[in-house]
Amino acid sequence: MRRLPSQRVGFTLVELLVVIAIIGVLIGLLLPAVQAAREASRRSHCQNNLRQIGVALLNYEQQHEALPVGCLEKRISGKNPPGRQLSWIASSLPYLEQSTLFEQLNFAVAYDDPQNLNATQTALPVYLCPSTFRLAPNRSRMLAGASDSSQGLAVCDYGGIYGAAFVSPSANGVLIYDHAIAIQEITDGTSSTLMVAEDTGRNWIMDGEWINGENIFDQSNSINTQQDNEIWSDHLGGAFSLRCDGSVRFLDEKTSTEVLRALCTRNGTEIPAIVSSN
To answer: Which residue ranges traverse the bilayer (predicted)?
Structure first.
């Protein structure tokens, strides 16, 4: 009797290599799409952070008839006492559903006083951009947030707008030293004036703690050219900003410094059409 030929089972080496190559190509095509989807989610999260911050600041303004003081008692070297240097963030905590944390702060002492450590070591997720990866030296990212390596004070990725550099008079923004700005003082228009912007990845050396009143800055360079005290983020192509009307907009890093300075001033009499087009 003739024997039937045995059936072949499995792949040949060539077929296996072809399948592996096809899988590799598919993974290569899929990975950028997955990364893009994740970044889109992180961008949405960052926008939502700024919207919440905007609601808190505008609710504060509605009750107090002015925005919070950007930095209460700026610390001056050699001065005794040196100054409490408390931030606008600390003042607005109750409007971010952080009343318990607010009540733990002692506003009669400095931001880094031991009496405030328990509260100021608490990370605030709403002040952390999930896209941040370019961390300044000595800044660590933890599961619950981020802290510096000095006293463990929790840091933030958003800074208040002190104004535009090289524009006279100085302190021409809306979150400044020892003075609360009322909405009526923003004569350029609330939709044409920045209140807060991303300034991500900073550490304690760069005054990146949320309690530190020096967490305000005046803009002098283009976006994403300087990490310390300038608009800076890890979003591709620009950074998110919060305007005084509560709107959140993405600023292209190609935006000219002239337009940026116009956006950072509250009463610079710039042409609204130029400012609002970005």
So the answer is: none
